[in-house]
Amino acid sequence: MSDNIFKGLGIALVTPFTKDGQVDYKALERLVEFQIANGADFFCIMATTGEMPTLTSEEKMRIKEFVVDTVQGRLPIIIGCGGNNTKNVVEQLEHGNFKGIDGILSVCPYYNKPTQEGLCRHFSMISEATDLPIILYNVPGRTGVNLNPETTIRIASDCRNVVAIKEACGNLEQVKEIIKNKPCGFDVLSGDDALTYSMVECGAAGVISVIGNSMTKEFSKMLHLEMEGNFKAAFEIHNRLIELYNLLFVDGNPAGIKAMLSEMGMIENVLRLPLIPVQDSTSKRISILMKELSSSLH
Hints:
Elements lengths: L7 E5 L12 H13 L4 E4 L11 H15 L5 E4 L5 H10 L7 E5 L8 H14 L4 E5 L1 H4 L5 H10 L3 E6 L4 H10 L5 E4 L5 H7 L3 E4 L6 H12 L3 H20 L4 H9 L16 H17 L2
Parallel strand pairs: 1-2, 1-8, 2-3, 3-4, 4-5, 5-6, 6-7, 7-8
Helix pairs in contact: 1-2, 3-4, 4-6, 6-7, 8-9, 9-10, 10-11, 10-12, 11-12
């Protein structure tokens, strides 16, 4: 049994903005409290869903401190810290303020397409730069490079503090290979809401979720039912959420989840360029589906 604390429903936390484009801390507090009350198991901040590339250094620091102060140790918090310049990531880890942070999510280097050996060396350097637990993040659709199963297993075996991978390769066979051959104490987390049911069925330990921002109670219930072995009840919830999973990503992430949270009255439907809100047709379909789900899931 793994001692990894990052299990169950992890929330890939959005960054809400006011109508004039500033970080909306009141809405951020509202989101965090809503998610804790409705079954979140841990938070992931400063990553893709949080629009991290559009935030200033000062905003990143303040958001991190704000979330830590709001959570008050009630749930673990992981923070995104990755990039395609290994030296720069190492310096961030060595000199950054990680007070209140329980782990690091580090994405595969993007754009410059390293070899598998280059990926091994990159994550080895990151591992040596911090004592915090590290979760690898494999998302080939964004980075342009796949962290192959044998490379994942090699990194997990060689790096003492690499405790999990957020796997968003979209390939269940790859997920199964990692789960079959991974070292003891290393977990696989889903990085794709639509595949979470199937991945947990294969042995994944949880998810870092987008839909969890809004459908926290429902997605948490599905996940924990399945992890307890109640596959039938879990699948019923999963099946009802399938169209919503797709709608959240049809116009890109986090545009879909922000439209949904706006529909709930939780945040303003504001993103920072180059990201823009979903199309009107998508927004209308999300609204209709949410009304249908509110009656069928409760």
